[in-house]
Amino acid sequence: MSNKGFLLVFMHPPSAFEEEFNAWYDSEHIPERLAVPGFLTGLRYMNTGGGAPRYLAMYDLENYEVLDSPEYHRVGYGQASPWTKRVTARARVQRFGGDVAGPGDRITGRAARIGIIRFRALAPAAIAAVTAGMATLCAGLPAVISHR
User: Low-confidence residues of the chain, pLDDT below 50?
Assistant: First the structure.
């Protein structure tokens, strides 16, 4: 059985375009993704501290291979609606995804604050060490609901 997968999307639309960006994201983009088999959650968060990126979307996936599925490709950017093409051409977007290294079958829930630590190209032993270290660090913090 493979690990759960994830997709993080950082987005920064121009401020004059933010209202249309939000309308598109909420009414077209998220519903399209959540209709794809294997997408478990799709939640979006706003950076209230100013600066970029303004938004973060977090998707939990049954596994990372969901992003290679024909169902996902049917809603992917090669098949994008005119609205999607217009919006994505105007917003800065960065995507990161992979396999969840943390424990269990947790999925993302609503939260007041999100912290993200990103590592590049860790060896399997390093992934295990980081995962164990995060478990130790978070175990004593009552404000931490989950880590992965």
Answer: none
Contact indicator for 127, 93 with CB cutoff of 8 Å: no
**Residue 104 belongs to a domain:** yes
What is this structure's pTM? 0.83
The CATH number assigned to the domain holding 54 equals 3.30.70.100
Instruction: Give the side-chain half-sphere CA count within 13 A for 138.
Output: 14
Q: Is residue 133 a part of any domain in this protein? A: yes
* DSSP state string for 119-135: --S--HHHHHHHHHHHH
62 within domain boundaries: yes
Query: Which residues constitute the domain of residue 56?
Result: 5-139
Q: How far apart are the first and last CA of the chain?
A: 18
